[in-house]
Amino acid sequence: MQIRSNGVEESDFNLSDVKVDSWRRRGTVDLDNDLLIVDLDFSNSSTDSASGNTVNSLWRIREGVDGFLRSDGTVIALVDKTFHLSGESYGDSYGIYTSNIFTELGIQLHPVNFREYGCQSVVENESLDGYLKIANTTSTYLKFEDHDFDEGTELVRRGEYGKPGGVAFRSIDGTGNGSLIILPRPHHIGARPQQWLKLLIESCLPYFPKHLQEEFTPEESTTKETQSSSSSGESQFSPSVYDRLTQLCERFPKVAEKLTNRYGDKEPLQMEDEHDVQDLFYALLKIDFDDIRAEEHSPSHAGSGSRVDFVLKEEDIGIEIKYAKEHTQEKRLKNQLAEDKEQYGQHPNCDELICFIYDPEHIISNPLGFEKDMTGRTHDLDTTVIISPK
């Protein structure tokens, strides 16, 4: 199927191997594909030509979304704060409030003094629960009493008794066509892109038109396990490389703990230092990956003793291992990670970096905050920091 977004390049797209080529805040949008993902987070008010292109795109969305939905198109809108965006194109000035993008459909986005509220799912949807671990707050709520759709299903609420923060609308104006799903936006749109985009699509899938649901469904089940999964209502999509690495990091402590309690009188295997963690992590990587380059020199640092821990050559992913010990200061860890990003960014086979910090003694006081601060894109490198256990 074809997908178009103001952040994701138009491309063949399926959930078995989600890849985000780029997520930009500026660009043009054509409402002539199956699925449109709209990023409504803008904070600039400049009047350069790039902003003018963005404003024009948003106006095209506002003016063309009705017809796009009536032709059975699907729109996913990601919202956090709302802004007034202005720009200039060919000497003309333009402006638009992002809160007004869907007002012609009877849907308004209301900011609340830029105060963040926690988000909770109000439907049974495991993928949505996972997505809200990444997009877990929002400053905007929705009003849709007079919307133009046959169905409006509340998906997300701000706080336990708060107002709607995410809604799925289906069948515009009695046509039986079109879906519009509005959800909170991740604060760091470049953070863990494969993970959040896959979870986003899976969260919205039940509200897609039937033909799009079929596009995302594998044509056949090749194993009994897949068929069983399908019949039980569980996701059929095979995990991506990114998902497997994330799961390995998060479950690593359980593996390490099991090795300290071995069968009979066998001597326990302890994770005493960073090299022990690297050895076990490397052994676990061998389950899924063949070409693992261990302890390689970073080209720009060759001869200086700087090394990278692991590189998955075929996947273009680097992996850095840290062990948070009692004497390790958080500031020191952050400085080390900043240096790691620079080193991996120079590696010819590293487009993404996974930094795994093993913290069995809970040395890092605010692991979620640490991950959030250190995850993102620097030196043309997408970096994800995962601390486990938390």
UniProtKB/TrEMBL annotation:
Top-level division of the source organism's lineage: Archaea
Family matches, as Pfam families: DpnII-MboI
Region named Disordered: 215-239
Compositionally biased region (Low complexity): 224-239
UniProt-recorded name of the protein: Protein NO VEIN C-terminal domain-containing protein
Organism, scientific name: Halorubrum rubrum
Species lineage: Archaea, Methanobacteriati, Methanobacteriota, Stenosarchaea group, Halobacteria
